[in-house]
């Protein structure tokens, strides 16, 4: 049996309504003050519009195929004479293997706001299919690429004007995206178009249902960032100013580009449609909304649109973690700051978990700590952070 078959996907999450007490804003000093929280629970689960923002191109390292050089045998059976070489073929497998070994954690707090308007969705195995069928497999035709494996879904929804739309999105978007993906065909080079169409249609359906099901008044809306993680791909769909960042080695790679009203292409689109962007405590559409795309907000159509930008990133063995968060984090911390904190805590907690057999995922410690830092750096918004540890248990143990 492949030892990877026994790896489970662990889930941990915490929703904290109370504020964090300290106001210290130093990132380096906070790294030594991690704490455990009684609000954290854990359990095991076996995983059963074109982008105008510039996203870094995925780097896929070529596999190194070792060669064994030996002295050739002589005619009399003794070793000697010329050397001959034997090529050892590397076993071709998907980067994420069967995608069952990743762990995750999340934290969502009200912060300094009077009302909690953020919502989080973590759906392990929201789809199950082969890596070849998902598309973008780095080992197409291999044994692992043809085995059924889970595709995991992570979503953050930052509401405004109320919490109704954000909560609805957290309950519904992963369902409609999966339904739309099932409706569509297209393999081979068409897999990207299939995912784009599924997210476009899924977000549009959710936006229409907000109206048809009378989910909320027309002045209520929500950003939406949804990320699907397969064995070989990270597929991000963003509508608004929440953000997804991939920590790869020592790099912090943004997978999405914020939809801000003063972003050049968004400003042209808004003003081209007769809208205005007014600087009122930052750039805002008609002086009201600080983002240019969202679900809901029908009173600001056609300037606020529910159309996501979809990007694709091929997974690498160097990937450390994925961070998906609302602007309550990104308003006070840069991508590089978040990446550095995440790497340090992950490595520390992985060592501790290996030594003492701890079952608490390191990803949860990262989510908690980033939330604390954002609050201490005077974030004025709700703060929601999902951290996905992309190193399986086996890989972590090999790195010790």
Protein model, in words:
With 400 residues, the protein is of the alpha+beta class. It has a single domain, classed as PPM-type phosphatase domain (Phosphatase 2c, domain 1), CATH 3.60.40. Helices cover 27% and strands 29% of the residues. The protein has 9 helices and 18 strands. It has a 7-stranded mixed beta sheet. Strands 6, 7, 8, 9, 10, 15 and 16 form a 7-stranded antiparallel beta sheet that branches. The protein is globular. The two termini are 24 Å apart. 47% of the residues are buried.
Q: How many domains would you count in the coordinates?
A: 1
Helix segment count? 9
Name the CATH superfamily classification: PPM-type phosphatase domain
- What string gives the helices and strands in order? EHEEEEEHEHHEEEEEHEEEEEHHHEH
Under the CATH scheme, which architecture would be assigned?
A: 4-Layer Sandwich
Largest sheet: 7 strands, mixed
- Overall helicity: 25-40%
Shape: globular
| End-to-end CA span | 24 Å
The fraction of residues in strands falls at: 25-35%
According to CATH, the fold-level topology is Phosphatase 2c, domain 1
The strand line-up of the biggest sheet is 2-1-5-18-17-11-12
Question: Which class of secondary structure composition applies to the elements?
Answer: alpha+beta
Q: How many beta-strand segments?
A: 18
Alpha carbon gyration radius: 23 Å
Mean pLDDT: 81
CATH class: Alpha Beta
Family: Belongs to the PP2C family.
Protein name: protein-serine/threonine phosphatase
Region (Disordered): 1-53
EC number: 3.1.3.16
């Amino acid at each position: 049996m492949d030892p990877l078959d026994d790896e489970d996907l662990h889930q941990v999450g915490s929703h904290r309504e109370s504020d964090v007490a300290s106001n210290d804003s130093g990132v380096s000093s906070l790294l030594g003050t991690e704490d455990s929280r009684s609000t954290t629970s854990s359990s095991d689960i076996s995983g059963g519009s074109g982008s105008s923002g510039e996203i870094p191109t995925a780097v896929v390292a070529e596999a190194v195929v070792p060669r064994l050089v030996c002295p050739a045998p002589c005619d009399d059976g003794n070793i000697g004479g010329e050397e001959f070489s034997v090529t050892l073929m590397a076993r071709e497998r998907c980067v994420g293997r069967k995608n069952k070994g990743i762990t995750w954690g999340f934290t969502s707090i009200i912060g300094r706001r009077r009302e909690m308007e953020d919502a989080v969705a973590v759906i392990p195995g929201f789809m199950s299919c082969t890596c070849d069928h998902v598309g973008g497999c780095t080992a197409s035709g291999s044994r692992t690429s043809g085995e059924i494996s889970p595709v995991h879904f992570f979503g953050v929804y930052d509401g405004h004007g109320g919490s109704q739309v954000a909560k609805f999105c957290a309950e519904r978007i992963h369902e409609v995206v999966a339904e739309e993906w099932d409706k569509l065909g297209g393999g081979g080079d068409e897999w990207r178009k299939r995912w784009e169409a599924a997210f476009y249609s899924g977000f549009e359906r959710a936006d229409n249902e907000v109206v048809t099901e009378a989910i909320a008044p027309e002045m209520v809306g929500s950003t939406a960032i949804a990320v699907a993680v397969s064995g070989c791909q990270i597929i991000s769909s963003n509508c608004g100013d929440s953000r997804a960042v991939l920590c790869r080695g020592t790099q912090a790679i943004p997978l999405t580009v914020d939809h801000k009203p003063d972003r050049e292409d968004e400003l042209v689109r808004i003003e081209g449609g007769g809208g205005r962007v007014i600087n009122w405590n930052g750039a805002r559409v008609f002086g009201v909304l600080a983002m240019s795309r969202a679900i809901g907000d029908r009173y600001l159509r056609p300037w606020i649109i529910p159309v996501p930008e979809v990007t694709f990133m091929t997974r690498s063995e160097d990937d450390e973690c994925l961070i998906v968060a609302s602007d309550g984090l990104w308003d006070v911390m840069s991508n590089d700051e978040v990446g550095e904190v995440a790497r340090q805590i992950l490595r520390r907690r992985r060592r501790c978990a290996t030594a003492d057999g701890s079952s608490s995922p390191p990803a949860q410690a990262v989510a908690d700590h980033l939330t604390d830092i954002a609050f201490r750096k005077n974030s004025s918004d709700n703060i929601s952070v999902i951290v996905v540890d992309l190193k399986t248990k086996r890989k972590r143990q090999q790195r010790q």
